[in-house]
Amino acid sequence: FVALRSDDSAGRGDATAATPEPTSPPPSPESPSPESPSAGVAEAPANTVHPPFHQFTQTNFFSAEVEKVLPRETLLHQGATLDQLGGMLAAWNLKVGIHHAADSNLEEFRRQARAALASGKEYVIINFHRDPLDQKGGAHFSPLAAYDATSDRFLMLDVARFRYPPFWITAESLFKAMNTTDSVSQKTRGYLLISK
Fold this sequence. Notes:
Helix content: 10-25%
Strand order of the largest sheet: 1-6-2-3-4-5
Number of strands: 6
Structural class: alpha+beta
Strand content: 15-25%
Order of helices and strands: HHHEHEEEEHE
Distance between the termini: 15 Å
Radius of gyration: 16 Å
């Protein structure tokens, strides 16, 4: 998975802070099986360091098609919007549904994310801002890994592991963090539903 900064998190050196909600997992989360295929694995380039394996790196992800959507140099300076990341993933022949929070609601998000996680064939990437979660940092992308219906919490696998370990977050808090305006696109953040 390529860790991508979203728009206004570029260049910040934030310190580690406590997660805003309990990190111990609730019982019986709905999640894909360990055998589930990763999005894009079949299309991943060969790993020249560890043949015969294939994997994406922060360099080989930027194919000529991806560069047409968002050049790597632009990403390094301003981050990516939700639409740009969706386009970049679609450039690898993935099916990508782009959902801005302003065009959705909490119930629709919960239903779609829960169904995607339970399917084992669809993946969810969240574009959110850390401020509503009382976390240090700015806008960010990370995948969801599981949902617990009893506590109405999603398990976020924060890709900035040096800052935040995986954490459980209520659907309501997560939706509020997505329902913030991206300074580049002037649209709300949201979520991507990704499948082969």
